Amino acid sequence: MAYIRNAWYVAMWSQDLNSQPQNRLILNEPIVLFRDGRGNIAALDDRCPHRQAPLHLGKVCESGTLQCGYHGLEFDKSGACVRNPHGNGSIPKAMRVKSYPVKEMHSLVWIWMGEREPDYSAIPDLSMLDNALPEHVTRRDFLSMNANYELVVNNLLDLSHVAFLHKGVLGNEDSTGAQVKVTQEGDNVTVSRWMPGVAAPRLFDMLFQRDGRDVDMWAEITWIPPGSLLNDTGVTGIGASREAGSGIIGLHLLTPETEQSTLYHFAAVRTNPRSFPPDIETQIMRDLSDLRRKAFVEEDMPMIEAQQRMLGLGNGEREPVLLEVDGGAARMRRILQQRIKSETASGISAP
Amino acid sequence: MAYIRNAWYVAMWSQDLNSQPQNRLILNEPIVLFRDGRGNIAALDDRCPHRQAPLHLGKVCESGTLQCGYHGLEFDKSGACVRNPHGNGSIPKAMRVKSYPVKEMHSLVWIWMGEREPDYSAIPDLSMLDNALPEHVTRRDFLSMNANYELVVNNLLDLSHVAFLHKGVLGNEDSTGAQVKVTQEGDNVTVSRWMPGVAAPRLFDMLFQRDGRDVDMWAEITWIPPGSLLNDTGVTGIGASREAGSGIIGLHLLTPETEQSTLYHFAAVRTNPRSFPPDIETQIMRDLSDLRRKAFVEEDMPMIEAQQRMLGLGNGEREPVLLEVDGGAARMRRILQQRIKSETASGISAP
Amino acid sequence: MAYIRNAWYVAMWSQDLNSQPQNRLILNEPIVLFRDGRGNIAALDDRCPHRQAPLHLGKVCESGTLQCGYHGLEFDKSGACVRNPHGNGSIPKAMRVKSYPVKEMHSLVWIWMGEREPDYSAIPDLSMLDNALPEHVTRRDFLSMNANYELVVNNLLDLSHVAFLHKGVLGNEDSTGAQVKVTQEGDNVTVSRWMPGVAAPRLFDMLFQRDGRDVDMWAEITWIPPGSLLNDTGVTGIGASREAGSGIIGLHLLTPETEQSTLYHFAAVRTNPRSFPPDIETQIMRDLSDLRRKAFVEEDMPMIEAQQRMLGLGNGEREPVLLEVDGGAARMRRILQQRIKSETASGISAP
Questions:
Q1: The CA-based dihedral angle spanning residues B105, B111, B112, B113, taken in that order and rounded to the nearest 10 degrees
Q2: Of A129, B49, C80, C279, which is most buried by a Cβ count within 10 Å?
Q3: Do B9 and B226 contact (CB within 8 A), yes or no?
């Protein structure tokens, strides 16, 4: 399988990159990320050209260069070797590593994996992370799944699964009759579900405090290629407006490590938050963070990783038999394949 | 390597299939087994056609259908999708899974893996399991070995190994001079050994209580293709008839999971059991169950798995150099290859 | 990748081969080593020809033969089967295993992996192990690295890495300006470094007791193909002769298990040892043994294994960009490739 290469992928949360260099595997390429002395971020190929030692096992020098931990060669943010500490110190011309465009935005570190000029306007707008009060944002969290990232996108674009896989917590069977609407804006695909008169799942009951009374519920999830998904979801009183209700925007940021492994960064921002006393507020945000992580790790991950293993079996590579609810996922797949094809045809993005 | 496909394989002991669906990998095919509300058994392809989620992660509904745990599709015993809980509930024609013939018999669940009509008369006669008093049957046990099942059949058809690998417990060097007789009836192969005047191995001393006096010993093992072996073995007084002695029929039921992994179900039924006080009886059967499992897990398994690893090394795929005692195993191999070849030629059994 | 085959490799320390047979994987061949009743050593293919059971799971009989643990066949040191305990005891002609030339020398067991006649004069001279007082030799130790052995040879032939990877312990940045001299004698390559006026690294301070004063330091490492390296290294007072100083000869003996795994035997002999009271002596040798093992296991091994993993990634197989300090390693590589090519051309060494 190929990937869209001329695109921004999330490498990590900004808060997770400090004085130590960090490594990531992205689109099967080993990458080292570090901050120079001034806090600026750089991303380089994680292999020292000398003998392929991983640069992330080294350290950042006071001058802001990254020093290989094996023989002490130093590289600057452009990937140029700027110091050979040995003998007469001469530096062969070929002693340089590939540098990747990076951008710190919306409290995330984004990396551009293609050969074209990076298009900074293509970074998804996650400004809700910047604009919300800190107490209205969950933990900035991440995990790694042993599955192709398309399986995770499918999981998210078809939220009908919450009624079964996350029964009682994020959804329930009341909502299976929901009208599903698929819309497209450019290459972004949105799947909307409106679920009137349903029992409030635990997560929403927590935010909206209905004490078991039924609610109207919505979920509008948008996929922004290649790997960002924003899920505006919440509940309101029966027959009331969405503005009278309360919910979250769930952020799901997927980065392929390999064809069978995906980095998954996530957080949620409360929308139209009801106000609670500060200690209740703190408790709610902690519960919200825990509940989401638990659902992803204990319910989605085992299912998606099991799907991946099934695909690996003998005659496992079958076309899915799609349901009405899969309209969004089908559209996503077409867009993905088309963009990969167009990159391949242009011949400028081969790894 | 190929397998005989038009044949019955053991999927599990009946007692191990209750209200929860269970999964097995058989001939490299993922299978889910479950009981409907009435206790009837079904076996389906373990992959939901929608998105290949493993059906065994779902549950059995009150109506007896198997519900996928991901999006809630329900399948009946024939593999037909009978409910789509989403939207208007329409079910695509292609939404069905392969169903495998199954038969519960002799306290085992048997599965038919081929494309021909199942031949119910081909289930091996293990009625000794049904007819024996419960107190004369060991635990119904199983394990999984990381080795091709032919290596396990070889182990069993050439019982000369018990003198070395299970020294003192199931055999000893006294018996190495045994006359070995190989006979064939249809495709069943029997290897018989008569070992007069030998020290009683621990297992038989336990059943026959000779307190260390020598015995005459026999072992008659029959292979019923593809994976069932019955070993009638026991001891008697020197010069006495077999009827005056006591022993067991050891049942060894082998099911290939993959080319390098085998499900191994086992139990033993006492033959001509001497009568003991009930508490001694209970203790003997517990010891017998433990001793056999211990011998299989701690002695056979490491040796057979090490053989498998050796076969995986560079120039490891060598023809075995056979001994006189290997007559049965050689015949087994010919029959196996012939039946696989005939299935392949008929063209109706390809997976 | 190919190996030099007509050469001696270290199979183990003599002290580690006692009454139990031991197994090794060398150049991807499974080998069993054992001592007969008289203490003589033999090395055989570790696969019983009968059914490929690993012979090392058997035992050495009183007669000095090696008995297979599965069916009891016995083999002598030449690899001939000398006993079949079953039936009439006849032994098929093909029932023999390959025997490898072995030689116990310098407290090591050496094995010859090629098809040519073994050249006993080619065993590297490690007589310093025999001639030193026992209290001047470290533990005879070994470990296994998940990396190709060339990566380990590179590590050793370019000792510039000690200034960074083993900073403070075996080297420091003072020494990076060292003049590096590469010489060759036959196929042996020596890399010499002279480092005047440097802070004494911990290991040498321990042996020479300078209490922090600066020293002149040297390191002369010689590679003897295919896998033996001797590192004569030490310190002396500034401006003083090497004879007035003290150091060690570090022995590094590398044996490829597979293309991605290496057996690494090591020890060190003190040279020109200063005399200490016996209890201090004992403590120093224990510290010296511990310090070296710790440096290899905690510093070299993670780096070298990470290099190996990097080489396994997509476009990882790149030519190294060499520095001035790599002269020795480059020469080593040429010699290795030339000898492998010449063996292949002669056609007598294929496995």
A1: -160
A2: B49
A3: yes
Which helix (H) or strand (E) segment holds residue B156: the answer is: helix B149-157
Among B92, B122, B152, give the residue marking a domain's end: B122
As a residue count, chain B comes to: 351
Specify if A222 maps to a domain. yes
Query: Where does a domain end: A122, A155, A189?
Result: A122
Regarding whether A294 and A277 lie in a shared domain, the answer is yes
- A163 and A107 within one domain: no
Residues B195 and B87 in one domain: no
Residue B40 lies in a domain: yes
Of C29, C57, C72, the CB nearest to B306: C57
Q: Count CB atoms within 10 A of the CB of residue B328.
A: 26
**Mean pLDDT across chain B, nearest whole number?**
93
Query: Which residue in chain C has the smallest CA separation from A94?
Result: C321
pLDDT (tens digit per residue) in A173-217: 888 888 899 999 999 999 999 999 999 999 998 898 877 789 999
Domain that holds residue B247: 128-343
Burial (Cβ within 10 Å: 0-12, 13-18, ≥19) of residue C295: middle
Residues making up chain C, counted from first to last: 351
pLDDT at B349: 46
Shared domain for A83 and A150, answered yes or no, is no
Q: Where residue A82 sits, what CATH number does that domain have?
A: 2.102.10.10
pTM of the model: 0.93
Check if the beta carbon of residue A159 is closer than 8 Å to that of residue A191: yes
Summarize pLDDT for A53-99 with one digit per residue, the tens.
Answer: 999 999 999 999 999 999 999 999 999 999 999 988 999 999 999 99
Q: Taking a C-beta distance cutoff of 8 angstroms, is the pair A32, A46 a contact?
A: yes
Q: Answer yes or no: do C87 and B178 touch at CB < 8 A.
A: yes
Contact, C97 vs C49, CB < 8 A?
Answer: yes
SS3 C99: strand
Give the 3-state secondary structure of residue B212.
Answer: coil
Instruction: Nearest by CB to C314, from A49, A70, A351: name it.
Output: A351
User: Over the stretch B199-249, which tens digit does the pLDDT of each residue have?
Assistant: 999 999 889 887 778 999 999 999 999 999 999 999 999 999 999 999 999
- Provide the 10 A C-beta neighbour count for residue A74: 20
Tell me whether residues A87 and C307 touch, CB distance under 8 A: no
Clarify whether residues C266 and C318 are in a common domain.
yes
Contact B189, B331 (CB under 8 A): yes
Do C247 and C142 belong together in one domain? yes
Return the number of other C-beta atoms located less than 10 Å from residue A280's C-beta.
Answer: 11
Does residue C1 sit within a domain? no
CB of A19 less than 8 A from some CB of C: no
Q: Which amino acid is at C153?
A: V
Q: Which residues of B touch A314 (CB under 8 A)?
A: 28-29, 351
ipTM of the complex: 0.93
Q: Are the beta carbons of C153 and C28 closer than 8 angstroms?
A: no
Which amino acid, residue B209?
Answer: Q
Provide CB contacts within 8 A for C168, sequence distance 6+: C201, C202
Which two tokens mark B118? 């199942």
Burial class of residue A243 (count of CB atoms within 10 Å of its CB; 0-12, 13-18, 19+): exposed
DSSP-assigned letters across all residues of C295-328? IIIIIIHHHHHHHHHHHHSTT--------GGGHH
By the 10 Å C-beta count (0-12 exposed, 13-18 middle, 19+ buried), C217 is classed as: buried
- End-to-end distance of chain A based on CA atoms, in angstroms? 13
Task: State the Cα angle at C148 between C146 and C152, rounded to 5°.
Answer: 95
Within a 10 A sphere around the Cβ of A22, how many other Cβ atoms? 18
Give the number of domains in chain C. 2
Same domain, B178 and B322: yes
| Number of residues assigned to chain A | 351
End-to-end CA distance of chain C: 13
The pLDDT value recorded for residue B169 is 87
